[in-house]
Design a protein that fits this description.
about 170 residues, alpha/beta, about 15% strand, disordered C terminus
Length: about 170
């Protein structure tokens, strides 16, 4: 059986690099349970690696726990907007969190992307309805993932180890 997956560490790394390249020096990673093992933790490790690679100190990154629901992240966006020292570059480890953050920030008067940037992850179909669009660290579209999945499953032969295909 073939397996297609995402490289979550690389996704976190790309998200941080994008925000840092845009000039952000106060960063936030918003995720449910960043210290629990699994994909979210891998995204966090990748993000932290890029922050260290850029030579930013630990104080430049804030880890914020948020459940992966629109209402929770919208409320968080509203409360972040009230902070004078808020992060200007935000990585939401799920698109639904990014969408809620965007809504809360904008409703509270923060101009996005002029005053804050948000990078989402997961490529939820709902993300295409949001303005402004969040750059995604998962840059592989669903049709492209399906094609890659087909190529991976077709390249496996009986008795051989299945190929492991990873995006991005």
């Amino acid at each position: 059986m073939s397996r297609v997956g995402l490289d979550d560490f690389q996704g976190g790394l790309l998200a941080a690099r994008e925000l840092i390249a845009a000039g952000h020096r106060r960063l936030a990673l918003v995720a449910p349970g960043v210290d629990r093992p699994g994909v979210i933790h891998q995204r966090c490790l990748g993000f932290r690696a890029a922050v260290a690679e850029a030579g930013l100190d630990r104080d430049s990154l804030e880890l914020i726990d948020c459940e992966p629901f629109f209402d929770a992240s919208r409320e968080l966006g509203t409360s972040l907007a009230e902070r004078p020292d808020r992060a200007t570059g935000i990585f939401a480890t799920a698109d639904i969190i990014a969408i809620g953050l965007l809504k809360g920030l904008v409703e509270a008067g923060v101009r996005v992307p002029e005053e804050a940037s948000i990078v989402g992850f997961d490529d939820l179909p709902e993300a295409r309805y949001v303005t402004p669009r969040s750059p995604r660290s998962d840059r592989t579209s669903p049709p492209r993932r399906r094609r890659r999945s087909t190529r991976c499953s077709n390249s496996s032969t009986a008795g051989s180890d299945p190929p492991r295909c990873v995006s991005p």
